[in-house]
Amino acid sequence: QVQLAESGGGLVQPGGSLRLSCAASGGTGSPNTMAWFRQSPGREREFVAANRHIGGGTWYAESVKGRFTISRDNAKNTLYLQMNSLKPEDTAVYLCAAGSGVIAGRVRIVGAYNYWGQGTQVTVSS
Fold first, then answer.
1. Is the CB of residue 60 less than 8 Å from the CB of residue 49?
2. Are the C-beta atoms of residues 36 and 6 closer than 8 Å to each other?
3. For 9, how many CA atoms within 13 A lie in the half-sphere containing its CB?
4. Per-position DSSP letters for 89-117, written without gaps between them
5. Largest CA distance in the chain
6. How far apart are CA 40 and CA 50, in angstroms?
7. pLDDT value at position 28?
C-alpha cells in the first residue's frame, strides 16, 4: 500500500553535508514510524535513525549521534535525514523504511518495518 521513494544522495567530501528525503505515497497520512537504514557492500543493513509520530520518540545509532538529524513533514508525507560532518565510513546506500505497528523496543530492527524504499547512494570521499 505504502510506497517510499528516497532522493538526495550523492558524492560529498568528508566534513560535508547532505539532506536525504523519503516521500511516502499510497497510504492515508504518514506512516507512524519511519526510519533510515544504510547498507554497504558485504555488510548487513545497519540502523541509522528512526522517528515515531504518535507516541513520540527519535532514535539514533551511536555512530551518527550529534551529526545526523531525522525529521518529517507530515503534511508532505516526507521523511528527512540531515547529515552533517560526513565521514568516509558513512558511505552506503541509504534506505527509507516505514512501519504501522513498530514498538519502541524494535525501532532498530530491520524486520520491524514492512515498507522499504529502493535506496539512494551516499558516497563520502575526497
1. yes
2. no
3. 20
4. GG-EEEEEEEESS--GGGTT-GGG--EE-
5. 42
6. 19
7. 74
Extract the C-alpha cell encoding 42.
Answer: 558485504
Pairing of strands 58-60, 68-73: unpaired
Percent of the chain with pLDDT over 70: 99
For the four alpha carbons of 97, 100, 101 and 104, in that order, the dihedral sign comes to positive
Alpha-carbon distance of 125 to 70, in angstroms, equals 23
Residues in the chain: 126
Instruction: Extract the residue ranges of the chain whose pLDDT is less than 70.
Output: none
3-state secondary structure of 12: strand
Which has the closest alpha carbon to 78: 111, 53, 106, 113? 53
